[in-house]
Design brief:
alpha+beta; Rossmann fold; five-stranded mixed beta sheet; 16 strands; elongated; histidine-tRNA ligase activity; aa-tRNA-synth_II; ligase; aa-tRNA-synth_II/BPL/LPL
């Protein structure tokens, strides 16, 4: 066993007993997004490193410490496994000129990669669903994204989630605020933790989101970005709040909510739970009006959010939400040469009729096969011996309710199974 190969630390197998919940989640996601007019976009797992440095920001934890970056030895390019999906989505929109046709409502899903210390709800390969609305500038689309999330939590059966919102204003208002914040924090230079000292002059707004309890008292007295907001940003934020109130969405204003990526402006929001310990944010996003131009496209407004699939599934399990059980409708039992030959035809015919059929393989007595049929969870056993095969018949035995075993020819079997 010492020589066995194991999965990479923090990159987990998803086993068959778990995938039923994933399937339920994924089916719900597709129907939910279709109801709002969002279309699927699929981008590569690997992108040029510069895409993430330019979009996320060089002085961020993701770029500085967490990206899986390597040199392609065939051509010398620096490549990175995607640590998040928005930058790749925007790159694809620019490259294929999708905004030429007008605003786009898009979504993506799949694995992301960050080299972090693995813990519950935080893995090195994790999965996200991201939703992006590009080419729309008003607070109405910000509100739509938040209302979408509120509906999703209801569809998934997870009630214990609260909404926190804030605004980062414009680049100009943040520049004014940034100077005031640095001046304030410099007074506490000896008391700042290592992360805060490192970020003080490069990315001071990230200090506001510190999880270090020792920083709380210092940050309580920090100046508020809200006090430096430009008029348009303030109006945008107030309009968003009004729409949410009108739609019955409860929210808290969290002025320390800044998000970890440099490209955000104006609206930012998080959906948070107390049920998952330290990893309480299950969905987060906001507006990123400057990102399209920053990556090289024609300036256009944009906003979106991403949700952590593993965290949401953990919350669904906490609320005892059941997934889709991968069980057959029919377990096909057969013994004898003629029976086995006929069983192939029966299995394919029933599948053509829309039934999920598990055909027994590996031989064995009728008794042993019936035990397997019962263990499979199937509602029916379809039993074929050589006598049935020669007569072109199937014995159908209900396994989950008290009903008589009946015989039917192949042409009648599908109708019988539907009516039992």
């Amino acid at each position: 066993m010492s020589n066995s190969i194991r999965a990479v630390r923090g990159m987990n197998d998803i086993l068959p007993d778990e995938t039923g919940l994933w399937a339920f989640f994924e089916d719900t996601i597709r129907q939910w997004l279709s109801a709002y007019g969002y279309r699927n976009l699929r981008t590569p797992i690997v992108e040029q490193t510069d895409l993430f440095v330019r979009s996320i920001g060089a002085v961020t934890d993701i770029v500085e410490k967490e990206m899986y970056t390597f040199i392609d030895h065939l051509n010398g390019e620096s490549l990175t496994l995607r640590p998040e999906g928005t930058a790749a989505c925007v790159r694809a929109v620019i490259e294929h000129n999708l905004l030429y046709a007008g605003p786009q409502r898009l979504y993506y899903s799949g694995p992301m990669f960050r080299h972090e210390r693995p813990q519950k709800g935080r893995y090195r390969q994790f999965h996200q669903v991201g939703v992006e609305a590009l080419g729309l500038a008003g607070p109405d689309i910000d509100a739509e994204l938040i209302l979408m999330c509120a509906r999703l939590w209801r569809l998934l059966g997870i009630p214990d989630v609260r909404l926190e919102i804030s605004t980062l204003g414009s680049v100009e208002s943040r520049t004014v605020y940034r100077s005031r914040l640095i001046n304030y924090l410099e007074k506490f230079a000896d008391e700042l933790d290592e992360d805060a000292r490192r970020r003080l002059h490069s990315n001071p707004l990230r200090i506001l989101d510190s999880k270090n309890p020792a920083m709380r008292e210092i940050l309580e007295g920090a100046p508020r970005l809200l006090d430096d907001l430009d008029e348009d940003s303030l109006k945008h934020f107030e309009s968003l709040q009004q729409i949410l109130r009108n739609q019955g969405i409860n929210f808290e204003i969290n002025l320390r909510l800044v998000r970890g990526l440099d490209y955000y402006n104006r609206t930012v929001f998080e959906w948070v739970t107390d049920k998952l310990g330290a990893q309480g944010t299950i969905c987060a996003g906001g507006r990123y009006d400057g990102l399209i131009a920053q990556i090289g496209g024609k300036p256009a407004p944009a906003c979106g959010f991403a949700m952590g699939v593993e965290r949401i599934l953990a919350l669904m399990l906490e609320n005892q939400v059941e997934g889709v059980a991968a069980v057959p409708d029919v377990y096909l039992v057969h013994q004898g040469e003629a029976a086995t030959e006929f069983a192939w035809k029966v299995a394919e015919t029933l599948r053509d009729e829309g039934f999920k059929v598990m055909q027994h393989c590996g031989g064995g007595s009728f008794k042993a096969q019936m035990k397997k049929a019962d263990a499979s969870g199937a509602r029916f056993a379809a039993i074929i011996g050589d006598d049935e095969a020669l007569a072109g018949e199937i014995s159908i035995k209900p396994l989950r309710e008290a009903a008589e075993q009946v015989k039917a020819d192949l042409a009648e079997a599908a109708a019988l199974l539907r009516n039992v």
